[in-house]
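pasting for the record
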Amino acid sequence: MENNVIGCVGKMCGFSAFTKEVACSGGNGSCWSAVMLEADESPFHDKSLQEATAIIRKALNSIPADPDGRKLSFVHTPNGTLLAWVTHSEDAPSGGLGYYDDQNELAKVLRIRKSFETAADAAR
């Protein structure tokens, strides 16, 4: 089933991470619905990126909808992106950790396996 949904009621979302959930509401753009766009070949989107995009879209579209109604989302941290089931709502709880909080604490709450230094180095 396709997960082509726009979260956070069509505006910029920011995540708030807790030990048992991640929620998004209006915010800083650190949370996006997991939708990959296709584009024609160009100097910045070559054939290899077109092929990778098709593979990623196929993988994302193969994931069944969440029975709890959460949306498949990309949670962007300063050190990488996590694919997660996220509650997108105007009424999302506040008080969790977000993009600008201590990255060690955020990594613990999100249960990120690699150290964020390693993830940041890999992106270079």
